[in-house]
Specification:
The complex is a heterotrimer of chains A (413), B (260) and C (394).
Chain A lengths: L31 H9 L3 E4 L6 E2 L16 E3 L3 E10 L5 H4 L4 E8 L4 E6 L8 E8 L5 E7 L10 H6 L7 E4 L5 H12 L4 E6 L9 H6 L3 E5 L5 H11 L5 E4 L16 H27 L10 E7 L10 H21 L5 E7 L17 H14 L3 E4 H13 L1 H8 L2
Parallel strand pairs in A: 6-8, 9-10, 9-12, 10-11, 12-13, 13-14, 14-15
Antiparallel strand pairs in A: 1-2, 1-3, 4-5, 4-7, 5-6, 7-8
Helix pairs in contact in A: 4-9, 6-7, 7-8, 10-11
Chain B lengths: L2 H13 L2 E5 L24 E9 L2 E10 L7 E3 L24 E8 L1 H6 L4 E2 L1 H11 L7 E5 L7 H5 L1 E2 L2 E2 L3 E2 L1 H10 L4 E4 L17 H8 L3 E4 L10 E7 L9 E3 L2 E6 L2
Parallel strand pairs in B: 5-7, 6-10, 7-11, 11-12
Antiparallel strand pairs in B: 1-15, 2-3, 4-12, 4-14, 5-13, 8-9, 13-15
Chain C lengths: L13 E12 L6 H16 L8 E5 L8 H8 L5 E4 L6 H14 L5 E8 L5 H7 L3 H6 L9 H15 L3 H15 L13 H6 L2 E3 L2 E2 L8 E10 H7 L3 E11 L13 H12 L8 E3 L5 H10 L8 H7 L15 H5 L5 H15 L12 E10 L4 E10 L4
Parallel strand pairs in C: 2-3, 2-4, 9-10
Antiparallel strand pairs in C: 1-7, 1-8, 4-7, 5-6, 8-11, 10-11
Helix pairs in contact in C: 7-11, 7-12, 11-12
Classes of the chains: A alpha/beta (413), B alpha/beta (260), C alpha/beta (394).
Protein name (chain B): Cyclase family protein
Pfam families (chain B): Cyclase
Chain lengths: 413, 260, 394
């Protein structure tokens, strides 16, 4: 039974902020099959295509029939905790300062046994539900939770190391002018965020939802134009030390590709807002977030980008926009690597066309801004890295995996 | 004119006998820009990127890259800016006669009316009332519309509502009249445009742009400190950047005012 | 079609001689090469041979860095015609004697030096753990289970719960070994240990507590393997190798390790030696954790599975007791010098049957068993082995 965590007290200025240590990071190449699964919140194991034996840890040959055909497939999550232990003086710095730390050996119903981090409510002999999570090194680790929901389940100390739960954290939503931004603010508040800073560019320009936003408690509206280096730097100077989660909802969506547009003014705005905006935000807020990755209950925890799924495959109808999103996606991988030493997750949320004016002529299905907001919170609470919101995004993901050329040809219509 | 007169002017400026009034807003990224429907090409705001600041990027020096739309901040409109002036000779900022960059100004104070009504429009009778007091507007003078709009916060300054901006400006008749009957060199305002916020609904739309530029005249907007100018007698120095075929440019607008 | 298992050839004519221990140090700035060099030097000196007489070399170490076995031959000025390196952790010594035995039997070599040594610098233990194996790197080390402590804790917990074993039962093994160690001047642990102290020790990774754990240290161990005629010509006292077994990844289908590979092979072990467990005068098990020793008592046939706790309650495991066990004090009290830890029991067993164990000598010890256990690659120890030796008096 987990006691709910207490709201963090104000920092004691006499104490040095604990620097973020990382758990062991080395993995075999094959083992990154679990990294991929963890990034998307899937539970995948290797299963031999020849004899159907599930195997773990990651192997290059089947232990049952020596076949090399061992694809990672979605696997049943149920297992039984065989034995547990509490490590009290681990030699690794990360675990040593988090000791006591509980791990166990789980026998999966599908066969293999897995050493796993344990949720506090797991008990020996009882069934568990297994997942792969990304730890503070950004690497996949197995995590066993009780099969049934237990009180305050998400407040488990070890589970919280794997997630970026908004509860008690301070969040910056970079663009509160958009429908996605507004919904995200609401969803974060419902998830227990302590403070939501809401960035508003060009505050002299009124926007829908402004009155609603101003009435909410726990909200601080801040001037923020991501495309403006100085605006970002000024805000980071003010609140950079207390942004635990940054949700980059900066957007600039215009239809059109290359030949049917004249000049580069719009493309430049797309890049100024989406790409350089991202870069400005990263340079403004990234360093402090990387520093504060182990700063207690409200440590810095995650950076979330809301990206178009067409970052993965260009949609000519919105071709230049797609390209700006691809640039952001590429940059996000760089930032992810640079945030990693701080244990700060970088989550990319891929969406299909959103139900807003800029996709007015696009037929359904379209993603409701609220669905994106809820997916953001869900991703933070379960510590995901790649999230596909809505049917279009999921379909693009699958089609890209199946045949990128087919997808390219078919997006051209 | 004898050169001694110019030296006398310089001396007067130095002694304070002639005041130099800065009519310019600081060019900054957060200054409001004209709002158009989003499907039109957007005016880029001012963007300042630091190149170095006595650091590894440039140990001994500080400098920035700056980019902006030609029509940001306190700025100048050349005739080529509007379709009505597109075929005129020397209609761009790089080709306009330099002598047009210095001219006297008549300042019409409508701050009281604008305070009452954000949609206040300058009309011929208002100008005539001003002339009754200060005399006829001479040719090749700037007419500057004082509304004290520049003293507002940015939100009230832009004053956007769901039916567009509500800011004061001239009506079509007075613009046509000022250009044709008074031969003004240009028209200046404190607001984001030389035209009123609702001028898109006028006939013709945007009459200040329409008549000024169609006749080869100029516009100045986003001016400030007009309250420090006399109704008559100030001399305006407004020299835009020499942008190739430029339609306008941010600039430093200076007024020389006799202290007496 | 099934492949028929055939009868192994005997070890007739194979002997072990010249047990060497280079006294351990908790930390030493010397390298593994230094420690192995000392052991080789001691082998040559004690055997009264020249280093050029050594024509076979078998080495085990975790801390040689980039050095291979062949690199060591140049380092030590050896010219051998048979060379092996054995990375089997706690089973390395058993594997070494098995391989060397066949080499001298087949006359691929006449005198094989089997040696294991490891450095222990500050932080070298952690580095060894970090790079232990791929499964360990992928699926154990990221869980904070650096060191075998957590892995053995899981095995111990499951074993103890399954068979109703208490910490006090397990503690008897550690306490007896400490008593033995007090007679061994080379043991790093020099203070008595009571069962009360054992029980009151701080937890490391439940149910593993401080005195369940070995202390990593630097050191080296070695012996020579040759034919009996070679030993006779050199005038060296020698012990005959009666029987050996080796097994890897046994009982892979057991969800958790409750038994080691010995259980699969002990019939053959005792049959080939022509002895029964009761005949043994001294037993040296691989004791990286006392619970693993208890498991070996069962799997090596001294009692039935699940009766290990009763066995240790009913027997005195000290040098003068009715079941002399880990007479040097074992790794728990002497220290674990990396791969040399695998040799500790075998070298001590060799001393015992040669009658040269000095202060730890068991009276009239003629027949010894030494076992090895190693390589927690993932969730269990994979390698197991055992040797039965007979002294010249038998």
């Amino acid at each position: 039974m987990i006691n709910p965590i207490d709201p963090p007290r104000r920092k004691n200025p006499l104490l040095r902020t604990r620097l973020p240590a990382s758990p062991p990071r080395a993995r075999s190449r094959k083992s990154h099959g679990f990294t991929r699964a963890a990034a998307e919140g899937r539970f995948m194991l290797q299963r031999c295509a020849a004899c159907n034996t599930f195997a773990y840890p990651a192997r290059d040959a089947c232990p049952s029939c020596l076949s090399a055909d061992l694809p990672f497939v979605d696997a049943p999550r149920r297992g039984t905790l065989l034995a547990e232990t509490t490590a009290r003086v681990p030699s690794d710095v990360y675990f040593r300062e988090r000791a006591p730390w509980r791990i166990g050996l789980v026998k999966m119903d599908c066969g293999p046994t897995i050493v796993a981090h344990l949720h506090a409510d797991c008990s020996e002999g009882a069934p568990v539900r297994m997942s792969f999570q990304l730890d503070k090194s950004g690497q996949a680790v197995a995590f066993a939770r009780p099969e049934e929901e237990t009180p305050n389940m998400d407040d488990d100390r070890q589970w919280r190391e794997m997630t970026a739960d908004p509860k008690f954290r301070r969040v910056l939503v970079t663009n509160g002018r958009s429908a996605i931004g507004l919904e995200t603010v609401t969803a974060l508040q419902a998830a227990g965020a302590k403070t939501v800073f809401v960035g508003v560019a060009e505050p002299w320009r009124p926007f829908a939802g402004e009155q609603h936003l101003r009435k909410l408690d726990g909200i601080e509206i801040v001037a923020l134009d991501a495309s403006d280096e100085k605006s970002v730097a000024d805000l980071a100077a003010d609140i950079g030390g207390k942004v635990d989660i940054l949700i980059n909802t900066t957007e600039y969506i215009r239809p059109g590709g290359v030949l049917d547009r004249k000049g580069t003014a719009i493309a430049r705005e797309e890049i100024d807002h989406a790409y350089l905006g991202f870069l400005n935000l990263a340079q403004g807020f990234g360093p402090a977030m990387r520093m504060r990755g182990a700063d207690g209950v409200n440590s810095s925890a995650a950076w979330v980008n809301v990206l178009s799924v067409y970052a993965l495959a260009n949609w000519p109808a919105y071709g230049a926009y797609s390209a700006s999103q691809a640039a952001c996606l590429s940059l996000s991988h760089c930032l992810r690597a640079e945030l990693r030493p701080g244990g700060v997750k970088l989550t990319n949320l891929f969406t299909g066309p959103v139900d807003t004016e800029w996709f007015q002529m696009v037929p359904p299905p379209k993603v409701a801004p609220r669905a994106i907001a809820q997916a953001i919170v869900a991703a933070l609470k379960s510590g995901l890295e790649d999230v596909y919101v809505g049917d279009v995004a999921e379909e693009i993901r699958q089609r890209l995996a199946a045949n990128p050329k087919a997808l390219e040809r078919e997006l051209d219509r | 004119m004898q050169s001694s007169n110019l030296l006398e002017l310089a001396g007067a400026i130095s002694s304070g006998a002639v005041r130099v009034v800065d009519l310019t807003f600081t060019l900054s990224p957060d200054f409001p820009v004209i709002v158009l429907p989003p499907e039109f090409s957007p005016a880029a705001p001012v963007r300042i990127q630091e190149l170095s600041r006595y650091d590894a990027r440039g140990p001994a020096w500080y400098w920035n890259n700056v980019s902006f739309c030609e029509h940001t901040g306190t700025h100048f409109d050349a005739p080529i800016h509007w379709f009505t002036g597109k075929d005129l000779p020397n209609n761009a900022v790089d080709t306009m006669p330099p002598k047009d960059m210095l001219a006297p100004a008549c300042v019409i104070d409508c701050s009281a009316q604008a305070k009452q009504d954000p949609d206040f429009l300058l009309t011929i009778p208002v100008v005539e009332a001003w002339e009754a007091q200060h005399g006829r507007i001479p040719e090749r003078n700037w007419v500057l519309l004082r509304t004290d709009w520049s003293k507002k916060g940015w939100r009230d300054y832009a004053n956007l509502r769901d039916d567009g901006a509500h800011t004061p400006g001239p009506n079509p008749a007075v613009m046509k009249w000022l250009v044709e009957q008074r031969g003004i060199i240009g028209f200046g305002t404190e607001t984001i445009g030389t035209d009123a916020g609702q001028a898109g609904h006028f006939d013709p739309p945007y009459p200040a742009h329409h008549f000024l530029h169609g006749a080869g005249r100029y516009g100045l907007q986003c001016l400030c400190n007009l309250d420090q100018l006399p109704a008559k007698g100030a001399v305006i120095i407004a020299s835009p950047l020499k942008i190739q075929n430029g339609s306008g440019s941010p600039l430093r607008v200076i007024a020389l005012v006799s202290s007496s | 079609m099934t492949v028929e298992k055939t009868q192994r050839a005997s070890y007739d004519g194979v002997v072990m001689a010249v047990p060497v221990t280079i006294p351990y140090m908790r930390y030493s700035i010397e390298s593994a090469q230094w420690w192995i060099g000392r052991a080789l030097s001691a082998l040559v000196a004690q055997a009264g041979i020249k280093s050029s007489d050594i024509d076979g070399l078998c080495v085990s170490s975790f801390t040689l860095g980039n050095d291979s076995g062949v690199g060591l031959t140049q380092h030590f000025g050896l010219c051998v015609r048979w060379l092996d390196t054995i990375p089997l952790g706690g089973a390395s010594a058993i594997a070494a004697v098995r391989k060397a035995a066949r080499a001298v039997q087949a006359r691929d070599a006449d005198i094989v030096a089997c040696v294991a040594g490891d450095a222990n610098h500050v932080d070298s233990f952690r580095q060894t753990l970090e790079n232990f194996s791929r499964f360990n790197q992928d699926a154990v080390y990221p869980y904070g289970a650096g060191g075998a402590n957590a892995s053995f804790a899981l095995i111990a917990r499951n074993y103890m719960r399954t068979y109703g074993v208490t910490r006090e039962d397990v503690g008897r093994i550690a306490v007896a070994q400490r008593a033995n160690a007090l007679r061994n001047p080379n043991a790093l642990m020099k203070t008595p240990l009571s069962i009360e102290q054992y029980l009151a020790a701080r937890p490391i990774s439940d149910p593993i507590h401080l005195f369940d754990c070995v202390m990593p240290c630097a050191g080296a161990e070695a012996f020579l393997v040759m034919r009996d005629d070679t030993a006779a010509s050199l005038g060296l006292p020698a012990a005959r190798v009666l029987s050996t077994i080796e097994r890897h990844n046994a009982f892979a289908d057991d969800p958790m390790q409750l038994r080691g590979g010995w259980a699969k092979d002990i019939g053959e072990l005792y049959a080939m030696a022509g002895v029964t467990p009761d005949d043994l005068d001294v037993v040296q098990t691989y004791d990286d954790y006392p619970v693993i020793t208890m498991m070996q008592f069962e799997d090596l046939g001294f009692c039935k599975k699940g009766e290990g706790a009763a066995f240790v309650r009913e027997h005195d495991l000290t040098i003068d007791g009715d079941f002399p066990h880990n007479t040097s004090g074992g790794q728990l009290s002497v220290g674990q010098a990396g791969a040399a830890g695998a040799y500790l029991g075998l070298v001590e067993g060799l001393r015992q049957v040669l009658g040269t164990a000095g202060p730890t000598q068991v009276k009239a010890a003629r027949l010894a068993l030494a076992s090895g256990f190693g390589m927690i690659n993932y969730d269990r120890g994979l390698a197991s082995g055992a040797v039965i030796l007979a002294g010249p008096a038998r």
